[in-house]
Amino acid sequence: MDIALILSIFVLAGAVKGISGLGLPTIGIALLGLMFSPAEAAALLVAPSLLTNVWQAWGGGASLMLLARRLWPLLAGIVAGTALGGALAVDAAFARLILAEVLMLYAMLGLLDFSPRMAPWAEPVLAPLSGLAAGALAAVTGVFVIPVVPYLQALRLERDHLVQALGLCFTVSTLALGLMLAEHGALALPQLGLSLWATLPAVLGMMLGGKIRRRIPPLIFRRGFFVFLFAIGVHLLLS
Q1: How many other CB atoms sit within 10 Å of the CB of residue 175?
Q2: In angstroms, rounded to a whole number, what is the distance separating the alpha carbons of residues 181 and 161?
Q3: 156 in helix, strand or coil?
Q4: pTM listed for this prediction
Q5: For the CA atoms of the chain, what is the radius of gyration?
Q6: How many CA atoms lie within 13 A of 181 on its CB side?
Q7: Average pLDDT, the chain
Q8: pLDDT at residue 62, rounded to an integer
Q9: Beta-carbon neighbour count of residue 55 at 10 Å?
Q10: Cα–Cα distance, 233 to 38 (Å, whole number)
Q11: Membrane-spanning residues where (predicted)?
Q12: How many Å apart are CA 138 and CA 135, to the nearest integer?
């Protein structure tokens, strides 16, 4: 039953990513966090997240090199923040508390349709700071969305380019997180093997999500997605 439940979580997380372009680590960490510590859940998600994010980063219409050239301060901040967060040695109970708050904040921003706009002069300042914050939070919780997603939305990229930029940022985040987990002994061969096996249901879910993307009204999906995340955050907070 535990194995079936874990496989179902990966299918669901992959389906959400196939529909929206993000959400695999968020949904995966949120649901796996009910059974494991954030570090253990993040270790299981390394391989599926890396594969699907590389796929997403290469799948857009923009030049990956041009995106990387614009986003490199953000990406460098993510790597530095992950290393900093890994050095904090946060215990599992406190990590769950932070995870709950991150999920609830992200859900509230989504439900309120928070749509920031960034002035050109602010981008060089906010990029490394956003990366540092995102990397530190990812190291503690395994979730990459805050504040990377609001930052990229504020750049007002075209939709396909936004999805590709998210894939690039999440790829770098996953690599940095995987190295940090390996350094701290949380991603040894057994965990890596389980993570590789979990790639299959995640990819199947992503393909399924791609097929049903046009059958779900975007507004209904967004609201349901964020209400679901908020409910998981409340559950983690109370427990």
Answers
A1: 18
A2: 30
A3: coil
A4: 0.84
A5: 16
A6: 30
A7: 85
A8: 61
A9: 14
A10: 13
A11: 72-105, 125-149, 161-182, 188-208, 220-238
A12: 5
* Mean pLDDT per 10-residue segment, the chain (239 residues): 84 83 80 84 88 77 78 95 86 85 90 83 92 92 87 85 85 91 78 85 86 76 83 85
Question: How confident is the model at residue 176, as a pLDDT?
Answer: 93
Alpha-carbon distance 68 to 64, whole Å?
6
Amino acid at 110: G
Cα–Cα distance measured from residue 126 to residue 33, given in angstroms and rounded to the nearest whole number = 30
Q: What's residue 213's pLDDT?
A: 72
Q: Which residues contact 91 (CB under 8 A, 6 or more apart)?
A: none
Nearest residue to 195 via CA among 43, 68, 35? 43
Show the DSSP H helices in the chain as ranges: 2-20, 24-32, 38-58, 64-86, 92-111, 123-141, 145-154, 159-183, 189-212, 218-238
Using the 8-state DSSP alphabet, how is residue 142 labeled?
A: S
* Domains in the chain: boundaries: 2-238
- As given in the structure block, the two tokens for residue 66 are 């041009």
